[in-house]
Write a structure and sequence with these properties.
With 336 residues, this protein is α+β, with helices and mostly antiparallel strands. The protein folds into two domains: 187 residues, Fructose-1,6-Bisphosphatase, Chain A, domain 1 (2-Layer Sandwich); 130 residues, D-Maltodextrin-Binding Protein, domain 2. It is 29% helix and 24% strand. It contains eight helices and 15 strands. The protein has an eight-stranded mixed sheet, sandwiched between helices. It has a five-stranded mixed sheet with strand order 12-11-13-15-14, sandwiched between helices. A hairpin with a 3-residue loop joins strand 7 and strand 8. Helix 2 runs antiparallel to helix 3. The protein is globular and about 55 Å long. The model has no long low-confidence stretch (mean pLDDT 93). The chain binds 2,5-anhydro-1,6-di-O-phosphono-D-mannitol (AHM) and magnesium ion (MG). Magnesium ion binds next to strand 5.
């Protein structure tokens, strides 16, 4: 079979870099290293059922959740590859309690925050999972980076994206010049441009919520989503309901089709009083992507996710994200 001469992700990155003559190539190099890690994880995910890698490792991570073997594999793969890449000064991961240093002598000018395997509760049941990442420029001058380098608002991200391990493996990322999607051809081992300059529809088609949590939402959050569920022909409401429980997969579907995803704060336990999802490596990178695609992301009290100053590596945040007109309505309804 003859293959079409597609644009590889490497070609795309090189072409984008040419638009910035001042660029040193470090961000391109960083992304390319991350892509190799993503391809390694993708191969492992595809083998998971066969390689008897499924199942729990018997440990818990800092959030008190069980760590599964694929989470560990993904975390190790990214840490090892990126620690010697020469592009980073410090990292943080959902799977590690404290900052992750890079190897001495390999310090670079960026930081990386990542969720190595988002949606890991879905691994055993063959549902799509993904890796989410966020890149900032370091704040400190030289040497090893520290906590302060990582605690930067989403607005200052220089790149953000995810790799979705689904029916195909996809890479979706932005460096602040639109959102581009690439699909992995596993027989060649290359990501090819499949979704150039993704724009998310202004109006949602799907509503994505864990409605099992509804009794524990704040009353005005409940009122808002009850209102969204009311029939309204002009807005195409009620929207169809779609919720996978794998953030990357829910986000990706809504990005393409238009949608409103929310994980509001929950009154049941202290840990959820700020929502479930993590700011640095879940909410902020997806917020940058959605803004670049024409959508928006706010908290359940109307603050822009990208403006939040992080105080903690593993900080949680209530998240409402998706099509612009729907998030505008949420902001008006819920904002104080
Ligand atoms: P994880 O990073 O430990 O996998 O947890 C985050 C996941 C998200 O992918 C998803 O949006 C959410 O948790 C689903 O939570 P719930 O099962 O409470 O609806
Ligand atoms: Mg996660």
């Amino acid at each position: 079979m003859r293959r079409p001469l597609g644009v590889t992700v490497h070609r795309h990155i090189v072409d984008s870099q040419r638009l910035h003559p001042e660029a040193t190539g470090d961000l391109s190099g960083l992304l390319n290293e991350l892509i190799v890690a993503g391809k390694t994880i993708s191969a492992e995910v595809n083998m998971a059922g066969l390689a008897d890698i499924l199942g729990m490792s018997g440990k818990t991570n800092i959030q008190g959740e069980e760590v599964q073997k694929l989470d560990e594999f993904a975390n190790r793969t990214i840490v090892r590859r990126m620690a010697r890449s020469g592009y980073l000064c410090v990292m943080t991961s959902e799977e590690e309690d404290t900052v992750i240093p890079v190897e001495e002598g390999y310090e670079g000018k960026y930081t990386l925050a990542f969720d190595p395997m988002d949606g890991s509760s879905n691994i055993d049941v063959n549902v799509s999972i993904g890796t989410i990442f966020a890149v900032h420029r370091r704040r400190s001058a030289t040497g090893q980076g520290d906590l302060a380098d990582l605690l930067q608002p989403g607005r200052d991200q220089v790149a953000a994206g995810y790799i979705l391990y689904g029916s195909s493996t996809m890479l979706v990322f932005t460096t602040g010049h639109g959102v581009h999607g690439f699909t992995l051809d596993p027989s060649v081992g290359e990501f090819y441009l499949s979704h150039a300059d993704i724009r998310t529809p202004e109006r949602a088609r799907y509503l994505s919520l864990n409605t099992g949590n509804r009794p524990y939402w704040q009353p005005r959050v409940r009122d808002f989503f009850d209102m969204v569920n009311e029939p309204d022909a002009d807005k195409g409401r009620p929207y169809s309901s779609r919720y996978i429980g794998s953030l990357v997969a829910d986000f990706h579907r809504n990005l393409i089709t238009g949608g409103l995803f929310a994980y509001p704060r929950d009154s049941r336990d202290a840990g959820k009083s700020h929502g479930k999802l993590r700011l640095l490596y879940e909410a902020a990178p997806l917020a940058m992507l959605i803004e670049q695609a024409g959508g928006r992301a706010i908290t359940d009290d109307g603050r822009n996710i990208l403006d939040i100053e992080p105080e903690d590596l593993h900080q949680r945040v209530p998240l409402i994200i998706g099509s612009k007109l729907d998030v505008d309505e949420a902001e008006e309804f819920l904002g104080s």
